[in-house]
Amino acid sequence: MSANSMLDSTVGQLVAEQPARSRVFERFGIDYCCGGKKSLAAACTEKGLSAELIVREIAQLDESTPPPEVDWNHAPLSHLCDHIERTHHDGLRVALPRLTMLTEKAAAAHGDRDRRLHDLRDLFASFRAELEAHMAKEELILFPHIRKMEASGMPQAFHCGPVANPIRVMLAEHDDAGEALSAMRILTDNFTAPSNACNTYRALIEALTALETDMHQHVHKENSILFPRAEELEASCMRHDRKDGFPTEDRSN
Question: Among candidates 81, 85, 120, which has minimal Cα distance to 200?
């Protein structure tokens, strides 16, 4: 890929093509999940980064990185839904309760010296509740709808209209989660433990850092790959349905 093509591509597309590129974006603070629709050029300008430097870093990484084992741009959508549930949702079910315990312990032990830890505890509690509700909506409503549509090759009746409608809600909730993670980063001095921090505080910072990285990858796979492909699939099913001459509502069950 030429430098100009890379700069014109969105950061979400670049990571979708080669997931390892996310390491470059993480290192330079470029948002490739909720901000995945921005071109690389625009993202560099926004962060005050040298576009030439970022392109060079990506090119060097590409030279030393094999192609991804699974190309989620072309794999069955049902497989991608399964992967998101097994890799990210199941991982969060382990990480979130542990982080609740750590935020509560840190606030109880050190909140008198750093009131921000109380804010962090409360913010994380809201974040967890909203994220767990979000995952339930995906697993019980959106993902089954996508799987059924892909398996049948036909548009599916959906109580809230086209698949773009629930996707729009999921995108907004992803933005909310991203804002909460940014606020947690601010409350912890960019996820940095004080020099005299206890083991609980250090474990909290490590867990929050891992959570942020996983959420970036999780949201990227949905925002930049799963959701656009699901909308494309629905449009294709609708065109096929009209071509066959059958009303959509008669073939959606």
Answer: 120
* Per-residue buried b or exposed e for 11-43, using 16+ beta carbons within 10 Å of the residue's own CB: bbbbbbebbebbebbeeeebbbbbbbebbbbbb
Give the pLDDT confidence score for residue 4 in this predicted structure. Answer: 86
* pLDDT tens digits for range 133-144: 999 999 999 999
3-state secondary structure of 112: coil
Helices and strands, number each (H, E), in the chain: 12, 0
Convert the pLDDT of each residue in 159-176 to its tens digit: 778 999 999 999 999 999
Q: Output the CA angle 204-207-212, nearest 5 degrees.
A: 125
Q: What whole-number distance in Å separates Cα of residue 63 and Cα of residue 19?
A: 14
Helix (H) or strand (E) holding 185: helix 164-187
Asked if 238 and 154 count as a contact pair (C-beta separation under 8 A), the reply is no
104, 79 contact by CB (below 8 A): no
The closest alpha carbon to 28, from 66, 67, 56, 69, belongs to 56
Among candidate residues 217, 81, 83, the one with its CA nearest the CA of residue 142: 81
Integer Cα distance of 40 and 4 in angstroms: 10
65-80 residue pLDDT tens: 998 889 999 999 999 9
Q: CA-to-CA distance for 78 and 230, rounded, in angstroms?
A: 10
**pTM score, two decimals?**
0.88
